[in-house]
Amino acid sequence: MEILTNKEEVREKLKNNPLQAAHLLRLNGYGSIKYECACGETHDANGKDVSCKGSAKPFKALLKCSNNFVTMIKIEGFFRKKAISEYGFKASIMD
Ligand SMILES: [Zn+2]
After folding, report:
1. Which of 45, 64, 79, 82 could form an S-S bond across to 33 if both were Cys, CB 3.0 to 4.6 Å?
2. How far apart are CA 22 and CA 63, in angstroms?
3. Where are the alpha helices (DSSP H) in the chain?
4. For residues 4 and 32, is the Cβ–Cβ distance under 8 A?
5. Residue 43: which residues within 8 A CB-CB, separation 6 or more?
6. Domain boundaries defined on the chain
């Protein structure tokens, strides 16, 4: 996973892969989807401590955890979903 350290890097990523509304991606029908977070921990994308801030095509979600880190994951797999973490950053760099 790539860790972004400033606002410009985040903007550049989102320019190449624009964000859409979070509700366009429905993750909650899939049960637990573990992903590697930018904070160093592993979370469940459907966990209570994780909120979905947006989605992107084709099947990506921007997730924020309770440690205040944001991670872009790509969901793969058909029956069994798995999450690949593409990049992440500390939410505070966007303030
Ligand atoms: Zn985290």
Report:
1. 45
2. 10
3. 7-16
4. no
5. 34, 35, 37, 49, 50, 63, 65
6. 2-94
Q: How far apart are CA 52 and CA 70, in angstroms?
A: 9
> What residue ranges of the chain have pLDDT lower than 50?
none
Ligand 1 centroid from CA 38, angstroms? 6
Which of these, 63, 54, 52, lies nearest to 89 by C-alpha position?
Answer: 63
Residue 16 CA, ligand 1 centroid: distance in Å:
24
User: Which residue in 24, 55, 50, 56 sits closest to 37, CA to CA?
Assistant: 50
**Å from CA of 44 to ligand 1 middle:** 10
- The Å distance, Cα 37 to ligand 1 centre, comes to 5
Q: Which residues of 44-63 are buried (b: 16+ CB within 10 A; e: fewer)?
A: bbbeeebebebbbeeebbbb
Tell me the one-letter amino acid at 53.
K
Q: How many CB atoms lie within 10 A of CB 84?
A: 14
Residues belonging to the chain: 95
